[in-house]
From TrEMBL:
Pfam families: AraC_binding, HTH_18. It comes from Agathobaculum hominis. SUPFAM superfamilies: Homeodomain-like, Regulatory protein AraC. This is Helix-turn-helix transcriptional regulator. Keywords: DNA-binding, Transcription, Transcription regulation. Residues 192-290 form the HTH araC/xylS-type domain. SMART domains: HTH_ARAC (SM00342). PROSITE patterns: HTH_ARAC_FAMILY_1 (PS00041), HTH_ARAC_FAMILY_2 (PS01124).
Length: 290
């Protein structure tokens, strides 16, 4: 259950666990406006490249503007929303342990090993204009250029730039310890289980009391817990998952619009159109044509 919203795709390869999203060839551009709650063992750096992007990382919500940089730690739930082509972001996903050296030195003990083990993490948000932001953005732009060219030595150049980001963040105090709070692991595990369960069953009829009962919680407690940790109601979250899937089906299949709405879990076609329009600003039919 917990793995349901763990990303099942491999980020990069076993020999070089690094990947940039959306793909630099533009093949994923239409599929990147909404990345629902998920988690993965790799670290992720998210840059806001144009407009404004809404993010939820762990239990905090952020509004990112052009130039901002965000960091999601290993196994940390996060979600990204960038409605419309005027709002663009890019993600850099990599395994922390592949930055480590075969021969241990001071940086290995002080920075890289704690980062790989989760005892150290990047501060979540680095706003445009803050110390270190321009240096980090320069290094990320260098990674993009290197990755596009795929010249000999590009993998080493990418790794060197990622190490440079670690160094810059250390220099400006953007690396912080991860103290273990009582109950924090249990809460994080419970959140991942809830996200996983809803990710598996959102196309089915779901009610808050039934889902709360599944997790052994009262409806009142579950409702409050959900809103406090996800920044939206249970119903809003289910609708988001359904609208995301509907948009994908409209792009990738020829299913009739009404069938799309019913297949993702809406039992009222008018309500489906209303909810879709509230997210994308157009009806499902116009979205497909556009």
């Amino acid at each position: 259950m917990d793995a349901a919203r763990r990303e099942k795709k491999e980020h990069g390869t076993l020999s070089f666990p690094f990947q940039i999203y959306p793909a630099l060839d533009g093949s994923e551009a239409d599929d990147s406006d909404f990345i629902p709650y998920h988690w993965h063992p790799e670290l992720e750096i998210i840059t806001v490249d144009c407009g404004r992007v809404s993010l939820t990382i762990a239990d905090r919500m952020y509004e990112g503007a052009r130039g901002d940089v965000f960091f999601a730690a290993s196994e940390e739930l996060h979600e990204i929303r960038a409605a419309g082509r005027e709002n663009q972001f890019r993600s850099f996903v990599f395994a922390a342990d592949f930055l480590q050296f075969a021969r241990a030195d001071e940086t290995e003990f002080a920075l890289l090993e704690p980062l790989a083990e989760g005892r150290l993490r990047f501060a979540t948000c680095l706003r445009s204009g803050e110390p270190g932001q321009s240096e980090v953005r320069t290094l990320l732009a260098q990674i993009v250029r290197t990755w596009q060219q795929q010249a000999p030595g590009c993998q080493l150049a990418v790794k060197a730039a990622l190490l440079g980001i670690v160094a810059v963040c250390a220099q400006y105090g953007r690396l912080e310890g991860r103290p273990v709070r009582p109950g924090a692991d249990y809460r994080a595990r419970q959140l991942r289980e809830i996200v996983g369960y809803l990710g598996e069953h959102f196309t089915e009829p779901l009610s808050l009391p039934e889902v709360a009962s599944h997790f052994g919680l009262s409806p009142q407690y579950f409702s409050t817990f959900f809103r406090e940790n996800f920044g939206r109601t249970f119903t809003q979250h289910i609708n988001s998952l359904r609208i995301e899937q509907a948009a994908r089906l409209l792009r990738e299949t020829d299913l009739p619009v009404m069938e799309v709405g019913f297949s993702v879990g809406f039992d009222n076609f008018s309500y489906f159109i209303k909810r879709f329009r509230s997210v994308y600003g157009v009806s499902p039919s116009h979205y497909r044509k556009g």
